[in-house]
């Protein structure tokens, strides 16, 4: 089994190093190979997703990704900016299914900005389609406005679109995920306004016929954003498109107050995947040794479960993370009075020890 | 001065009746004329926005709108569904600027699902562009997928677009609103992915040159959704497109926990406007006399301020609402131990008395 390690920028290298440490003590013979991505890719090879990095990611059985982005790359032309590496990897590897759990560990309930009774025990799974929608739809660009009151002026435009097969495959992923959980799926759309999402809704209803054991409901995206704030624990699994999923999964992650704890998986049709923490590259704290490595370590656990077929090792890592939390160890982002403040390395070491 | 009164469906008629009572005691000689809209429009004339209703709204100096939507209209074809009335009014009246304050009254801090220290004193203004974007962009529909791996299948599609002049005019509204407040404006975009919103950002930066006294910053929509949950009080004014604004303004409203308190204004280029509560038609509680009329009463206050040039009357109404809250009167949606539960009528009467 070959794992591509793409640490990226900012805190990426520090946190990925801890996950690698964890992988190395499992007693498995994984082959790990590292390559630069994002700003680091641009610095090394003039492109955020260098050819060699893409080739490695394609050849590997799974990709462990840190985070990308740093101040010095902010003013590059868009095609060279670090986040293009993420979009390029998703599209080139066909990673259409993004799984974003939003889980609130009981020990960390205080970290949330929401009242404990609203969020404690939160455990929802947001499934975001990741290779379609307005992220990639053509045509797009800036052109002369063809009609209406602004005719002749410049206008920016993009195309939102979802083909039937694209919706079917993400719906299957979502129904199957719900079957393994509380068997409730909320499909989030904007069918009252968008043709794309009326079509989305129709197809999801059709796929539902194959999963009669799952309770399906439909919610408009604006209402979903409200219900996530009002009563997030009512959700089990949510499925939505790329753009709405971008917004809702980040909002859901922030409900926990501990985004430094949240992993994510982006899977292709054969369960090959890219695994990364839900948080960003946090260049402001990079190199200080204070970043929380747990989201990346938990991403490695998801990798073991979904792509490497090592459910038991995944469970071991997740148990080890729970153990260090129960011990009271906390990085700065989740530190509270009465707990023990530790740095990135020490947190990684504690997980290794718990294993 | 002529005001079109469009009560709509569900709780719409009950809450609008209270706002009308309030308008009637101001001692102004407004001419009020009522017409059916939404499901009520469909029931009376076979269309959610009957011709006569649209004509009235066009002829009036301002429109007071309740809410639309009820169970029996859920399965109509989209063009006949109640919400088409809202979209039709916005487009036909050119109501491009939607102002959605999210204010947390100190007395109601307990109603929020967020911790009091995170939201008490919250006072942000979200300005949503309301007649452009993917809501109205052409072409849209269901077609045969023209290329890519799903070629030949059916696909749903929509067009996102913003012309330069459309962005300029909403930016001016936003900068001017910020000038009257804390002089800070956050423009929310997704410039890292969408051409439309890179263009949006460029134009907003250009308009900023005319408002050097306002501090402008830019935030991606996913991050904005997170920051609304994490630290909403950091915002002053936010401006964004129609689709992102739909999601973020509802999320912001829900942060207060008292969406029954939040008014909204939708303005054209000459400050003619449509005023409506931020909440929906709540058919589950319609006719029970328990709905909160304050958002509608406060919408009437916004109408007096923005469209009818009666700032003083607007202030009087807002003071009266604060007064009834201070008296401890609460409708069911905001009721807590130690306060007095009242119904829709009694709340309207209390505001009238306080005036
Ligand atoms: C960096 C950006 C292109 C990306 C996205 O919008 O998908 C990010 O926000 C994410 O959610 O992974
Ligand atoms: C009913 C619907 C078309 C509408 C919208 O999406 O604009 C509503 O959600 C709103 O925000 O007023």
From TrEMBL, chains A, B:
Gene3D superfamilies: Isopropylmalate Dehydrogenase. The record marks 135, 190 as: Important for catalysis. Its EC number is 1.1.1.85. It is found in: Cytoplasm. Its cofactor is Mg(2+); Mn(2+). Residues 2-351 form the Isopropylmalate dehydrogenase-like domain. Binds 1 Mg(2+) or Mn(2+) ion per subunit. SUPFAM superfamilies: Isocitrate/Isopropylmalate dehydrogenase-like (SSF53659). Substrate binds at residues 90, 100, 128, 222. InterPro entries: IsoCit/isopropylmalate_DH_CS, IsoPropMal-DH-like_dom, Isopropylmalate_DH. Keywords: Amino-acid biosynthesis, Branched-chain amino acid biosynthesis, Cytoplasm, Leucine biosynthesis, Magnesium, Manganese, Metal-binding, NAD, Oxidoreductase. SMART domains: Iso_dh (SM01329). PROSITE patterns: IDH_IMDH. Pathway: Amino-acid biosynthesis; L-leucine biosynthesis; L-leucine from 3-methyl-2-oxobutanoate: step 3/4. NAD(+) binds at residues 280-292. It catalyses: (2R,3S)-3-isopropylmalate + NAD(+) = 4-methyl-2-oxopentanoate + CO2 + NADH. GO terms for molecular function: 3-isopropylmalate dehydrogenase activity. Mg(2+) binds at residues 222, 246, 250. Belongs to the isocitrate and isopropylmalate dehydrogenases family. LeuB type 1 subfamily. Catalyzes the oxidation of 3-carboxy-2-hydroxy-4-methylpentanoate (3-isopropylmalate) to 3-carboxy-4-methyl-2-oxopentanoate. The product decarboxylates to 4-methyl-2 oxopentanoate. Homodimer. This is 3-isopropylmalate dehydrogenase. It comes from Janthinobacterium rivuli. The gene is leuB.
């Amino acid at each position: 089994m070959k794992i591509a390690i793409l640490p990226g920028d900012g805190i990426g290298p520090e946190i990925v190093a801890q996950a690698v440490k964890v992988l190395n003590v499992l007693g498995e013979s994984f082959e790990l190979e590292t390559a630069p991505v994002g700003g680091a890719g641009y610095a090394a090879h003039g492109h955020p997703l260098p050819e060699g990095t893409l080739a490695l990611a394609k050849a590997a059985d799974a990709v462990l990704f840190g985070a990308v982005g740093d101040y010095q790359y902010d003013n590059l032309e868009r095609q060279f900016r670090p986040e293009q590496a993420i979009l390029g990897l998703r599209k080139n590897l066909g990673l259409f299914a993004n799984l974003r759990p939003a889980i609130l560990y009981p020990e960390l309930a205080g970290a949330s900005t929401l009242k404990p009774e609203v969020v404690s025990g939160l455990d929802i799974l947001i499934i975001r389609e990741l290779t379609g929608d307005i992220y990639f739809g053509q045509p797009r660009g800036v052109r002369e406005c063809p009609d209406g009151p602004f005719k002749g002026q410049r206008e920016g435009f993009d195309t939102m679109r979802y083909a039937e097969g694209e919706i079917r495959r993400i719906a299957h992923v979502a129904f199957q995920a719900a079957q393994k959980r509380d068997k409730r799926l909320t499909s989030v759309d904007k069918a009252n306004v968008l043709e794309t999402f009326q079509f989305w809704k129709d197809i999801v209803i059709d796929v539902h016929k194959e999963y009669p054991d799952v309770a399906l409901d439909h919610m408009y995206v604006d209402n979903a954003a409200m219900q996530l704030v009002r009563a997030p624990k009512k959700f089990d699994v949510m499925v939505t498109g790329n753009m709405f999923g971008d917004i809702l999964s980040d909002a859901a992650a922030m409900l926990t107050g501990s985004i430094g704890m949240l992993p994510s998986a982006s899977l292709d049709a054969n369960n090959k995947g890219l695994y990364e923490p839900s948080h960003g590259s946090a260049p402001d704290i990079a190199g200080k040794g204070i970043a929380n490595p747990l989201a990346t370590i938990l991403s490695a656990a998801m990798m073991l479960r979904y792509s490497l077929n090592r459910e038991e090792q995944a469970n071991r890592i997740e148990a080890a993370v729970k153990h260090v939390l129960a011990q009271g160890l906390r990085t700065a982002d989740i530190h509270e009075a009465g707990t023990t403040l530790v740095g990135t390395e020490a947190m990684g070491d504690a997980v290794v020890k718990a294993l």
